[in-house]
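Anyone able to model this chain together with magnesium ion?
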Amino acid sequence: MARDGRPVIETVGLTKVFKDFWHRDKVVAVHNLDLEIRRGEVFGLLGPNGSGKSTTIKIILGLLYPTRGRVSVFSRPPTDVAIKERIGYLPEESYLYPFLNARETLDYYGRLFQQPRHERTRRTEKLLEMAGLVHQARRRVGEYSKGMARRIGLAQALINDPDLLILDEPTTGLDPIGTRQIKDLIRDLARRGKTILLSSHLLADVEDVCDRVAVLYGGERRALGEVKELLGRGELTQIITERISAQTIERIRELIDRLERKAVVGVSTPTEKLEELFLRIVQEAQAAEVQTSGVRAGGALPEFLTERATEGTGVIESLVAAAEEPEPAEPIVSEPASTEAEAAASGVIDELVEAGAAPADEEQSAAAEGTAAEPQRKSGEAARQVKESDVEGRRDVPQADRAVIDSLTNTDTSEESE
Ligand code: ADP
Ligand code: MG
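re: yes, here you go
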């Protein structure tokens, strides 16, 4: 595993207090948190609901300001525009445009990163394969099950070939195959030198995939260390053999007693994990080509995901540029048998890219902005929004992420502690 000494993420004494309307302290979401996440490691933030995992992640992404303490990402402040294109983010809640299909969704994000068309198409197809969604790629993501939405969310987070991947509860809502696949993908990404920060309350997932974990409770770090160390039972020894007779077991007992003066604590036949059984049943069904409207087996990581940093401008710059100087309409690439609906959707994507509208659903954006939902903003509107965020000193926060976080927290401006 590629590692060097420089931390990719560092927090020192990080504290976040959410205030109420009268600016009185309300909730200490994160308290005095020190973290150091190194290059190439898979780091897990573990903790029960409400322990401060998502808040920590949002501060690391520059979506929330800390009340106290320091945080750096790639040795820069998290609000630095230059680091945005090196980060992929899967938020806790789905934030996709419900009326785009999977292919259009990935194409849209590729355009936000100003990827040329052929590159977007190539990456989109590879990521659809990886996510096992090729056969469902023409369905609107609004119709997707939660697990399918999670998969397309992960694909979206990888479209810019990020060096740092931040996944908030990546396996929540996934079936065991999806969970296993995401865990395998995370390990593969780490082998390619990516750094991964994930949060979870699902212990088994963290145990399988993370090199190190921090356990949070009440916003404080209660434990930190390598999973192996934290879980290792150094006082026990386990020997696994092919099945042996009761007589042999008795002789081994005697031998251990004689040589070591120790007792045998337990003798058992290991059972297969339910996960293994489940995966085998599904693989058999897939081999027999049983029909399903759900996901198919996903593929391996696309080869475009490299250790190199991506080139090109960041999302926010493209949004600002797009707002000031609308890009000429460019139809999205579709398969040879493209339908009218797809042609119509390409116009929608053009508008989205132009406006830099936030992919929140109607309820979310209404909640975030206190106005009626307006998913397809005109470029003038987007420009105004960017200017407003300048005033707040937040020009570096991508509009999409702003709305994501606003809709998730339903706070930010009114409850921000600054
Ligand atoms: P986790 O992701 O570990 O489940 P969170 O970081 O989302 O936890 O939340 C930590 C605490 O901060 C919770 O008590 C939560 O209610 C509170 N909290 C999170 N966001 C806000 C907010 N925008 N305003 C007020 N309290 C918040
Ligand atoms: Mg959370």
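Residues 19 and 25 are 5 Å apart (CA to CA).
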